[in-house]
């Protein structure tokens, strides 16, 4: 019984870890200079992005390209610059994290 509980706690820790890791990745790639999770800064709150793109089949690929290449017009007059220091895999990880926010 104790072994089962311990295994469940360890598994839960591994399941929760990616959310923290992706937030850390967002910080390390300077995403948080223009975005926050809950509030608009220069760019939209990540939770607002998740709401806007919820249920859209092509959202992940579209947003990966926006992260890497930048974009404008979707959230107002301030353009998002290209993020040349973010690899496609990192962009995909970040986008999956953003889209998972509620």
Plain-language structure description:
The structure is a single chain. With 102 residues, the protein is mainly alpha-helical. The chain has helices spanning 2-28, 46-53, 59-69, 88-100. Mean pLDDT is 85; it is low at 2-19. The longest helix is centred in the first third of the chain and has 27 residues, at 2-28. The chain has a single domain, classed as Orthogonal Bundle (Cytochrome Bc1 Complex, Chain D, domain 2), CATH 1.10.760.10. The protein contains four helices and no strands. Helix 3 packs across helix 4. Helices cover 58% and strands 0% of the residues.
Low-confidence stretches: 2-19
**Rg from alpha-carbon coordinates:** 16 Å
Mean pLDDT: 85
Count of the domains: 1
**Helical content, roughly?**
55-70%
Shape: globular
Q: Could you name the CATH topology?
A: Cytochrome Bc1 Complex, Chain D, domain 2
Characterize the quaternary organization of these chains: single chain
H/E element string?
Answer: HHHH
* Gap from first CA to last CA: 34 Å
Précis, in short:
The protein has helices at residues 2-28, 46-53, 59-69, 88-100. It is mostly helical.
List keywords for this structure.
mainly alpha, disordered N terminus, globular, 102 residues
Lay out the secondary structure.
Blueprint (H helix, E strand, L loop, with lengths): L1 H27 L17 H8 L5 H11 L18 H13 L2
Helix pairs in contact: 1-4, 3-4
